[in-house]
Amino acid sequence: MRLGARLTTHAFSAGAAGISFVVQPVPGSDQLFVIPIQYLLAASLAKERGAPLSKAAWSQVHQLIWGGGALRLMLGLTLGLIPLAGAFTNAMTAFLTTEYLGYYVDRALDNPDNPPPALSIQDVLDAITSLFTGRAR
């Protein structure tokens, strides 16, 4: 990841996390702020490179943003009932999904004709499984 893209992604991620932490007491309200921030991040990274994202890449970007929104909403409705745990979880998921989005967009801009596949739930499960099976040996 290029330095400019990394710094831009970190700034947007920190903003998304901060806003998500502050507005957590109202379930789902962070979506009103975090989703536009994430779209702005994707557009900013493309503008920074001077290259538009392909339609295939934008399709993946939409899936990442709305999938992250669903994840934040689900965690907010479950852990949001626990004081501070909900706010912390909201902030962390906003930060992590925005960081991954920036990483994905940067990789997609490296190869606009053939964007990489987005991270799936199965990829996450495989990574967690390999982490625990690798340590058990």
TrEMBL record:
Q: Which organism is it from?
A: Sorangium cellulosum (Polyangium cellulosum)
By what name is this protein known? Answer: Uncharacterized protein
